[in-house]
Amino acid sequence: MKRLGLVSVHTCPLAALGGKETGGMNVYVRETARHLGRLGFEVDVFTRSQDPSVPKVVALGEGARVIHVEAGPQRPMSAATMAAHLDAFADGVVDFRHRSGADYALLHGHYWLSGVVAIELARRWAGTPVVQMFHTLGVVNSALADGSTERASRARVDAESRIAALADRVVAATSLEQADLAWYCGADVDRVRVVPCGVDVELFGPGDTSAARARLGLDADWVLLFVGRTTPIKGLESLLHALARLKFEPQDVAGLGPRRPRREILKFEPQDLRQARVRLVIVGGDRDERRDDGRRRLRAVAARLGIGDWLDFRGPQPQTVLPDYYRASDLCLVPSHHESFGMAALEAMACGTTVVASRVGGLATTIQDGVTGVLVPPRDDVALASAIASLLGDDARRATLGRQAARWAQSFAWPSVTRMLLDVYGELVPDLHEAPAAPGSGW
User: Fold this and answer.
1) How far is CA 244 from each of CA 99, 171, 241, 263, 301, rounded to the nearest angstrom?
2) What is the predicted pLDDT for the residue at 383?
3) Of the chain's two ends, which shows fewer C-beta atoms within 10 Å, N or C?
4) pLDDT per position as a tens digit, 384-404
5) DSSP string covering 20-80, please?
6) Fold of 2-198+413-428
């Protein structure tokens, strides 16, 4: 029986989002696997076992399943630490294939760790085609890093170049990422295909704001939302400085030269934000705050800036709960220093929530500035504060941007994205579309 093998070594598609090693990639792997299954394909997603109590094989949907492979200690660990266990992971996949009788028409690696494994498996299996998607490039992250802790290792950078050279096809989420692959990794652009990330438009859609706030226990005048990991590259410290400007330096926020009466700039007075109940809801980080260095760092920064009482950490949340967070929010804020795509922004747009994001990476193509959201320069807390203030003071503009964003997001529905991905697979396995779906192995 022929199957599609998806490799996601360091993060499981079943995990809650926003944790240290979970995010948009989890969604991408899970949703493409599910939709491939719905189209009649048999799909196995290989991921490292992090908890011995979790079954080895877990159904992901019709025709799709997650295979937990033992490789190193069965506990969470960083991606960097996991690199030492990639040979063991490949051995585990080979063993599963042997015992289950499965055969794979194609391997699709996600992130550089998975690419290393996919290339090795292709070598052992006499040339099984490999498709690779990096989701984020270490060399790009290093160029934008705030400190040494954010810089990618030389092993990762070298591996990315090697994978880009050996993979039969490389998938980029945007044309900008395609250019990065060519420039930084030396990828042959003739083997790179642009396939955007997607959004579940059945789950993420506009809804009642008051009802969503009631379900989440959010009682505030203004609800601002951030969804993602709390690492420095996500730009949360810039966001905190922007909010502090809104609270304490309202006259300077607009950047319009001589100070003008606030009423000429916004529809509310300076004291409104000082007296308002504002909540910055942060969905992401470690579920256990005691282990969440990012959360502690952000609390300290917010306290120093005088906005500690605005922060509301909610930790990682199940995908099914996220729509309520988007619907409950006045604005979704994505102040990243870099994003390969920006899936949280797309989910917010699908829910009709206005997004303010950095003009970086995929965000600059996903969001049409002034049409489906607002883009600001990265690391510019003055520009970010000005955009937030302007939108909070203009209900009509905020609503218009939200409606247009919801319509735009429909073009990124997962069924359409999955069929684009199948077109890439079909270049490597010409009879893929003709092959009948195989029955499950019963493993």
Assistant:
1) 59, 40, 5, 20, 10
2) 95
3) C
4) 999 999 999 999 999 999 999
5) TT-SHHHHHHHHHHHHHHHTT--EEEEEE---TTS-SEEEEETTEEEEEE--SSSS---HH
6) Rossmann fold (3.40.50)
